[in-house]
């Protein structure tokens, strides 16, 4: 199997899990908030059903901190 043309490691993909739809989709970090909002709006009348896995959300916070250089020399 050939991977799709997203060998771009600079942008981490974030899994969004929706227990109602029983789906998990990966979207780029930059669009994750939008994707969650749109999913919930279109499929769940704006209820916050779909969400980023809490464990992953933690890691994203770390990644973001790293990105900002907050973890340098810690
Ligand atoms: Zn859903």
TrEMBL record:
Enumerate the residue ranges of region (Disordered).
Answer: 1-20
Q: Where is the composition biased (Acidic residues)?
A: 1-11
Q: Name one Pfam family in it.
A: DUF8149
> Which residue range or ranges hold the DUF8149 domain?
7-72
Known InterPro entries for this protein? DUF8149 (IPR058462)
Record-given protein name: DUF8149 domain-containing protein
């Amino acid at each position: 199997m050939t991977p799709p043309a997203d060998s771009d490691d600079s942008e981490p993909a974030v899994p969004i899990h929706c227990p109602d739809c029983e789906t998990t989709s990966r979207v780029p970090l930059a669009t994750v908030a939008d994707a969650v909002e749109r999913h919930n709006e279109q499929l769940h009348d704006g209820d916050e059903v779909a969400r980023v896995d809490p464990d992953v959300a933690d890691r994203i916070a770390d990644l973001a901190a790293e990105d900002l250089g907050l973890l340098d020399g810690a």
